[in-house]
Design a protein that fits this description.
- It contains five helices and five strands.
- A hairpin with a 5-residue loop joins strand 3 and strand 4.
- With 134 residues, it is of the alpha+beta class.
- The relative contact order is 0.13.
- The chain binds zinc ion (ZN) (2 copies).
- One zinc ion binds next to loops.
Length: 134
C-alpha cells in the first residue's frame, strides 16, 4: 500500500488506528465523525482527538486532502497522485462518486476572461445517482 509506505519512509510509526483510517478512506471521502464511527465498528478503540491528530498529520504529509461538498462540514479524501477529479454527490442517498472530466477549456476560458492565475479549483456536482432516479 503506497500510503502506508509513505508514512513509514517519513519516519512515522504505523499504528493500527492510522492504518485503519487509511483503509476507511479508501472507500470514499468521510467526515471525521464517520471515520470515528467506522473505526469503532471495526473494533478499533481510539478517541476522537487522536482521529483528528492523525488526519492533521496525513494532511501535512499530503496523503489526504480536505474537500467541502456544501454540507458545512469537511470530508477527508485520500490524494491519489495524477488523478485530479471531481465529485458526484447524490442528494437522496448521499453516495459520493468520482468523475474525471476534460476541463482545460473551462480553465482557459476563466484565465482568459479574468487574467486570474488559477492555482486550484473545486467543481462538484449534485443530483440523483442512477439508483435514486426511479
Ligand atoms: Zn478540476
Ligand atoms: Zn442516490
Amino acid at each position: 500500500m503506497e500510503f502506508l509506505q509513505k508514512l513509514k519512509t517519513q519516519g512515522f510509526r504505523l499504528t493500527k488506528p492510522r492504518e485503519d483510517i487509511i483503509k476507511v478512506l479508501k472507500g470514499y471521502p468521510h467526515t471525521v465523525l464517520e471515520i470515528f464511527e467506522e473505526l469503532k465498528h471495526r473494533g478499533c478503540t481510539v478517541d476522537l482527538a487522536s482521529v483528528y491528530r492523525s488526519l492533521d498529520l496525513f494532511e501535512k504529509m499530503n496523503l489526504v486532502q480536505v474537500i467541502e461538498l456544501g454540507e458545512g462540514r469537511k470530508r477527508y479524501e485520500l490524494i491519489s497522485e495524477g488523478h485530479h477529479h471531481h465529485h458526484l454527490v447524490c442528494d437522496k442517498c448521499g453516495t459520493i462518486e468520482d468523475v474525471e472530466i476534460k476541463e482545460e477549456m473551462i480553465l482557459n476560458e476563466v484565465s482568459k476572461k479574468t487574467h486570474f492565475k488559477i492555482q486550484k479549483h473545486t467543481l462538484e456536482f449534485f443530483g440523483l445517482c442512477i439508483n435514486c432516479q426511479h
